[in-house]
Structures are given as C-alpha cells and as structure tokens.
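Problem statement: downstream parser choked on a complex file, so we are re-checking the raw output for the manganese (II) ion run. The parser issue turned out to be on our end (a line-ending mismatch), but while we're here, posting the original submission so the record is complete.
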Amino acid sequence: MKLLLAALRQTHKAAVHTGQRRRRSSRGGGGLVALREEALVVGSSQELVRRLGSQAEVRTGFITEEEEDALLRELEPGLKKKRYEFDHWDDAIHGYRETERARWGSACEEVIRRVRSTAFPEGSPLLGPVHVLDLDKTGYIKPHIDSVKFCGSTIAGLSLLSDSIMRLVKEDSTDEWMDLLLPRRSLYILRDQARYNFTHQILKDEESVFKGRKVPRLRRISVICRNLPG
Ligand code: OGA
Ligand code: MN
C-alpha cells in the first residue's frame, strides 16, 4: 500500500525540481476561449485550446450528490485519522493528507468503474489502487508532472466538496497555458501531451479566479485513477 504513494511523492519532488520556470503573467488580453458550451477550459490561445481540448477534458456532474455522499462516507473515517501535512517545503503538495484504496463498497465501486470506462481505453492496464487526496482549505498543489515511470498516459480525477481550478503550463514554453474549471462532482481527464508536456497544479484559494470570477476553494477531496506505463 505504501508503495504507490511513495512513488508519486518522488515524482512530485522531481517535477518541482525540474519545473523551475515559472509561468510569466502574460495572460491579459484576448486568449480567453470557450471550448464547449460550458466554457470550462480557457487558455493562452484559441489554437492551443482547440488542439489540446480533447486531451484536457472536464465533465460536469459526472457523479450525483448521492454518489458524492457515498464516497465521502467511505473515505472520511480513514482520512480523519491522518493529519494534514503543511511544512514539507520540498513537497509538491501543501496542506494535504492522502490515502489509496483498492477495494470499495458497491455504490463506490460502480462510480470507480464508470470513471475507468470513461477515461481509459478498453483493456488498458490500470494502476490497481485509487489515489485519494484531501486538500485542506488552505492547501494547494504546485506545478508538477506525474511520474512517467509509475503512471501511464491518462490521469482521471473526481473532485469532491469544492470547485477548483487546475492550471496546465507547457513545460518548455511557459507562455502556453490552459485553466480548467473543475466544478464539484466533475471528472477531469488529462491525456497524452496534456499529461506529459504540461505541468498541472491546483490553485490555492487566493489565486482561484476563472475568467475574472472568484472560485472559492474550500476543502477538496480528489479521487484519482491512473493507468500503467505502456
Ligand atoms: C496528483 C495530482 C490532482 C488532483 O496527486 O498528482 O495532481 O486533482 N492531483 O488532486
Ligand atoms: Mn499530478
């Protein structure tokens, strides 16, 4: 059980280390673009959003309130036994506790099955345990790329309890970026280039603004499924 989380943590550290370049704040002006009707993805240019749109997807209302409750009922007892971690300066995540889960009750099992059948190609070998990350209201995830050694081409995550903003920044060209609004109970899927060539991060509450509108970042739990490297 410890193994996966340790590996991901290594990843976070390494990615923070190599991802030194900071995004310049060149986001003024015309680049805000609606990908779909819901306009959950905006970016530095229309061309980028069009090109990467299918690799950085957000599905609103992927789970019902009842399913969110079922997940929380199953996850809260274990999470509550852990303390939020704040003070590891070299960690990619600030203000979090986490766990992983291989077996679920039947209501949750059905949700996980749906996430997997939506996000991954049939027959794609999956990482068995699901990763559960609980961010405190003051917590956030710094820019990083998940380990290519331990995780495959696709990352799919459910957001519970809070809306949030996931920012993708091109690793070798930091003027290229996309912001994904992740509403509570939505599913996001990062694939291929969006997963390998862009860092991802979850903005802290103070920075959580989407298309000029404040998106309050409360405590947020994500339930993340990954596949194995091919
Ligand atoms: C991670 C990560 C995103 C999320 O744990 O590597 O990027 O939605 N999590 O919590
Ligand atoms: Mn990640």
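For whoever reads this later: DSSP finds five helices and twelve strands in the chain.
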